[in-house]
Amino acid sequence: MLEFMVRRTLNAILVLWLVVTGMFFLLRLAPGSPVNSLPPAVAADPLARAAYEAEHGLDQNIFIQYFDYLFGLLRGDLGTSLYDGTSVMSQIASHLPVSLELGGLAALLAMVPGFLLGCWTATRRGSWSDGAVRVVTVLSFSVPAYWLAVLSLVFIGQRYPDMLPTAGGFVRFTEDPIANLKVMLLPALVLGLSTFALVVRSIRAALIDVLSFDYVAFATAMGMPQRQMMKRIAIRNAIIPTLTVVGVLLGGLVSGTVLVESVFQIPGLGQLMVTAFLRQDYPLALGCSVFTAMIFLGLNLVVDALYFVVDPRTRTSTQRRTAPVMA
Amino acid sequence: MSELTLEPGTSTPGRHASDDVVLRVSDLAVRYAAGRGAAVTAVRGVSFDVRRGEVFGVVGESGSGKSSICNALMRMLPNSARVEATGVEFGGRDLLSLTDKQMRGIRGTEIALVPQRPMTSLSPTTPVGQQLRWYFGDSIDDSDVRDSLARIGLHSVLGRLDNLPSRFSGGQLQRLLIAIATLTNRPSLLLADEPTTTLDATVQAQVLKLLLGIRDTLGLSIVYVSHDLGVIAQICDRVGVMYGGRLVEVATTSDLFHRPQHPYTKALLGAMPARWTPERGRLSTLRGTAAGANRATGCPFAPRCALADARCTEEMPAVLGDRTSMVRCHRVEEAT
Ligand SMILES: Nc1ncnc2c1ncn2[C@@H]1O[C@H](COP(=O)(O)OP(=O)(O)OP(=O)(O)O)[C@@H](O)[C@H]1O
Ligand SMILES: [Mg+2]
């Protein structure tokens, strides 16, 4: 198990490196330059331009810049923003918690009710309530998130304006938890809706599968009450295939924050990243990408580790694999 | 196959003879909905008794409806299935008219089931010891319960209770399942639906011995389902022969093997590899298949029967005999 997790972690680090390298060169190769987004007085004056480029090391060989960046990254130094000279790390530190809150809230609102509803409909297969849930879930994941975001902005925002984090009026959780949750609720619901629907569908499918297995029939034949059977046997085994889906869905939530933050004007990492890219603020854009990739990979590692918790077979099978080596 | 004898008498019919009937099935029918209003009839007109301490065998080829009977008795058929019967009496109650709640009280307590596939019948993600605790409760810690488990060869299992089911062999698991089914609540009826088909011959013999031993000590009745006549011969007191969803013959094991009546029973015996001797020449096989037999209006075996005439295909033969031994065949009827 330990060996497996170490391998997975090394894998994640390799992927992270590939992301950094890819993003670094793609940004530099893209047409345009950060200088263009500077005030016209600087942007139009060749001398001022050169001075600016020299100051930020943009005139150096691209590979030297690359290795500079990489070594800085290893020391935890993400550089400074080309736009306003602030430290990239401090920018991320102020925006990341907002995104984590949004993503976490969306995950919570999607996974918990999704799980419960999925279990409930699986035991009621073919009934009208199962059919109703099916219609709702199909609608939920076929509605595009951006459309839903704009729609809720227009309709709900008009009627209940204090549900919206209108520009500049965003309150942090640490300042006023109630007001913060109020404005986060709508974006989190929009972000989590399709995840919710897919959780319902996948746990339902997995449970229906498991309910047809021999071990459920034996427990029923032994007179085990349905509730106990669901808890001890059916759900326990149905969670395993669902976990894979959950891993993918969590990744979807991470990328979904970019869109939802832009539409709802939430000052999170996603919004920061979009602005950074628009301004061709290389260090900030890269820093945001690195963090997004880290969250993504970190979540996958957590899901991998969860397999060991919910499926004891994986524990024994890796033991078995290592046993002959030690013998 | 060395441990398998074909001679009936390993268990003597009538050893537990007393006429109290534990299970009385009358005119049982099972139908499955097959989409767009169509239905598949899996079982019809099946009647038999099982007496206390008796092992009643049900034999028949694949698809003849054996499992459907077991699941109907347990009331564990899928939602698509419909069960009808004049009566399924068990311990003075009609199983089919009980509420779901009453039926749950009977499952595992008064009627238990030994599953066909031991390897997949315990939850794969929970250690065996924990699962034993679900069924035995805290009495699993009692020394007499442990003793009885050890006595049926579960020593090694008791030593590794923290292991998952996948770490044990099919034979160990089947013995464990039989122990759970019979020892937790001491049921009076055990349904065994091909409990040894996935096991090899030696392990199969051990499991059969175990079942008979438990029958003797607890005096329970067993409905033993199999398509293997060799196994049936070893452990059953009486046997019912199924074909196309119908019970075509019921007889004591000794009568069935020495004086088979129904042409299908005869064909079945003739096709047994163990009965084959070089002098007999080719192993006899049945021509045709059983496809469609469950829809036949007449005798389900008629299309494959050498003795069949027009009447056989049109009219289902009446029951000749009583609940303890009977045959349904026009030819036998005419001969008597
Ligand atoms: N869930 C179901 N839906 C529809 N038809 C079914 C279902 N289960 C069984 N049948 C049909 O009912 C008939 C009897 O099946 P059953 O499983 O009782 O046979 P069996 O004698 O136990 O066979 P085997 O020896 O292969 O286990 C078969 O024709 C089968 O196709
Ligand atoms: Mg069967």
UniProtKB/TrEMBL annotation, chain B:
Its main location: membrane. SMART domains: AAA. InterPro entries: AAA+_ATPase, ABC_Ni/Peptide_Import, ABC_transporter-like_ATP-bd, ABC_transporter-like_CS, Oligopep_ABC_C, P-loop_NTPase. Pfam families: ABC_tran, oligo_HPY. It is a peripheral membrane protein. It is found in: Cell membrane. SUPFAM superfamilies: P-loop containing nucleoside triphosphate hydrolases. Keywords: ATP-binding, Cell membrane, Membrane, Nucleotide-binding, Transport. One of its GO terms (biological process) is peptide transport. Residues 23-269 form the ABC transporter domain. It comes from the Bacteria. One of its GO terms (cellular component) is plasma membrane. GO terms for molecular function: ATP binding; ATP hydrolysis activity. Belongs to the ABC transporter superfamily. This is Oligopeptide/dipeptide ABC transporter ATP-binding protein. It comes from Nocardioides soli.
